[in-house]
């Protein structure tokens, strides 16, 4: 998973999401028999964090960061604060502003499968 979400990984975001989805589906099918609900939730949080970092890295210039944050509904002051920050990508991907811009629902809308829903639909049927 680390190699698929590397900041220097080439390819479009859609290609990366497709490969991640294939890996997630394989994991769930192979390891799903065991009790791994907490592992899945922790991995999903880490994956969302890592994807936010990758997206932020691809918005290289502060102007692009500002424009994209404004596009996703962040107000002027917060967008300027995040776009012109000197902090690293990993640290900025933890920020509340970026979480408001790139929500879990937005990542799902862009094609990322939710690991916990996939696990529950396969193995936690009543």
Would you write up a description of this structure?
By secondary structure, the protein is mainly α. The chain has one domain (13-123). Helices cover 67% and strands 0% of the residues. The protein has helices at 13-31, 37-58, 62-71, 76-83, 89-92, 96-101, 104-109, 115-123. α3 (62-71) runs antiparallel to α4 (76-83).
Helix-strand layout with pairing:
Blueprint: H1 13-31, H2 37-58, H3 62-71, H4 76-83, H5 89-92, H6 96-101, H7 104-109, H8 115-123
N-end to C-end Cα span: 31 Å
Overall spatial form: elongated
Radius of gyration: 16 Å
- Give the SSE order as H and E letters: HHHHHHHH
How many helices in DSSP terms? 8
**Number of folding domains?**
1
Key terms:
elongated
Short précis:
By secondary structure, this protein is an all-alpha fold. The chain is built from eight helices and no strands.
């Amino acid at each position: 998973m680390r190699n698929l979400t590397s900041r220097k990984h080439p390819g479009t975001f859609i290609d990366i999401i497709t490969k991640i989805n294939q890996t997630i589906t394989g994991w769930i099918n192979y390891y799903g028999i065991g009790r791994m609900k907490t592992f899945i939730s922790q991995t999903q949080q880490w994956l969302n964090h890592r994807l936010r970092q990758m997206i932020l890295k691809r918005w290289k210039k502060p102007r692009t960061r500002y424009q994209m944050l404004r596009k996703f509904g962040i107000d002027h002051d917060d967008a300027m604060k995040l776009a012109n920050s000197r902090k690293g990508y990993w640290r900025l991907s933890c920020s509340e502003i970026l979480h408001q811009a790139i929500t879990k629902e937005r990542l799902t809308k862009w094609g990322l499968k939710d690991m916990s829903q996939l696990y529950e639909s396969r193995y936690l049927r009543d």
